[in-house]
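Example record

The entry below shows one chain as it appears in the dataset: sequence first, then structure tokens.
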Amino acid sequence: MVAPPLEIRHMSEAELGLALDWAADEGWNPGLHDAACFYAADPEGFLIGVLGGEPVASIFAVRYGAGFGFIGGYIVKPAWRGRGYGWALWQAAMQRLSGRNIGLDGVLAQQANYAKSGFHLAHRNFRYEGRGGGRSVDAHATVPLSALSDAEICRYDRRYFPEARASFLQGWVRREQHIALGVAGAEGLTGYVVARPCRSGYKVGPLFADTPAVAEQLFAGVLARLTPEQPVFLDVPELNPAAVALAERHQMQRCFETARMYTREAPELSMDRQYGITSFELG
């Protein structure tokens, strides 16, 4: 029997929720409200593969600005693997992002395969797991990000991401269920953090800060808002030793890692001020 051809099309937001359920089945622990936040970044950036009306594969190919794209959420349901459907979806994603510098966070076992598609290793990211609880640090004025303008948040975020991502950030930092804090100085933000509830515990990301002291204050502020029973995850770029030290100072344990790869040169970003990346799915 000849297998039906794979239909590749844009996902609806509801189908993005289905793809995130698949991600949960893979142990990726997505956020509870990721579908709405992700979809806002680029509504046409989420592709689904359908066989005879049944969704069987997903990939994210999100465009940012005029020159950057990010691939994530690359999953083929187990029963349909090894038949070329994933490769067809991969090619569609790469075509959608053609002409851009493309980034991804890949598991180490797939690094060689991504290299065959033109990706180059920039650095590793380490996922650390810990627990909530503790006291806030009051060295500087911590404020809810909801008290600040979208323009101020986007201006600060732009130092740490290859393109502006206002549509994504608006939902990410203002979602009622997310913990979103900033430290404000005389000239505006000197750091901010978002923590989102996931299938298990909370993931912290991004965590951007001008100094280790500000990063410590923001991270402690998140932990203080959680109970000691709640797992907390922080994805740290290895290029920032102060970020590694922050995680280890809080007795977090390294539990996973990815390879951050790009098709062109790594963007010039302030890696020494990145203490937690936003997500493995969207960069």
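Notes for this example: DSSP finds eight helices and 13 strands in the chain. The helical segments are 13-25, 34-41, 85-96, 111-116, 150-157, 166-174, 212-224, 241-249.
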